[in-house]
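Structure first, sequence second, as always.
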């Protein structure tokens, strides 16, 4: 594939991923937030969510579900997204909250925080407010804003994909910092997921303060 063909393919992909937002803009929704989470599966660390409101003319190529991108590319796109977004916000639920109310409820709570934070930034910057929320296969009961849950949304909708990148980079950076504090579990590599190195560290040292105790029950 030539460079031009590759670029054309990326342009087509961008147009496809903007389609849902384009339809909503045409119906009069001005500020659309994409929301996604990272970290539902790990044995340690928080679940992190992001809400991102992109401008209508956002035209950066290569944005996709964060899992499909290299770490280097995610870091580059994180800077572009947070630099060019109209607003963005981060939400978080730590291991204690996850153990207390379960991972799904903790995720929803963190998504509410991310939407609130993005709403605040949007108000400060534009005077406007989020008028539609697009979520990746989750519904938020009690949210006072029209919402739409889209299965595999992080691979279909630009704002959700952008949110997945912001959430992923935020959480990965945190886990790298935790690796310095708790060096026995290879958090810098596995980001808290249950890899061989991680389980070896658990067997030798037991859990550390950021482990999710309810997730470790499955080890026995």
């Amino acid at each position: 594939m030539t460079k031009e063909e590759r670029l054309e393919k990326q342009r087509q992909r961008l147009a496809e991923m903007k389609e849902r937002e384009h339809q909503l803009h045409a119906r009069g929704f001005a500020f659309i937030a994409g929301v996604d989470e990272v970290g539902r599966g790990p044995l340690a660390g928080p679940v992190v969510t992001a809400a991102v409101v992109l401008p209508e003319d956002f035209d950066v190529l290569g944005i996709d579900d964060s899992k499909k991108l290299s770490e280097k590319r995610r870091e580059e796109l994180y800077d572009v997204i947070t630099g060019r977004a109209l607003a963005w916000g981060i939400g978080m639920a730590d291991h204690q909250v996850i153990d207390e109310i379960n991972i799904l409820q903790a995720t929803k709570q963190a998504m509410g925080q991310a939407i609130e934070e993005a709403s605040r930034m949007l108000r400060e910057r534009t005077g406007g407010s989020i008028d539609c929320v697009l979520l990746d296969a989750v519904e938020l009961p009690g949210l006072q804003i029209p919402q739409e849950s889209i299965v595999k949304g992080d691979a279909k909708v630009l704002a959700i994909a952008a949110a997945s990148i912001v959430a992923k980079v935020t959480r990965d950076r945190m886990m790298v910092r935790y690796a310095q504090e708790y060096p026995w579990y290879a958090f810098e590599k596995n980001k808290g997921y249950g890899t061989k190195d991680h389980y070896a560290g658990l067997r030798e040292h037991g859990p550390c303060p950021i482990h999710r105790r309810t997730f470790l029950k499955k080890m026995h």
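Margin note: The CA atoms of residues 58 and 184 lie 42 Å apart.
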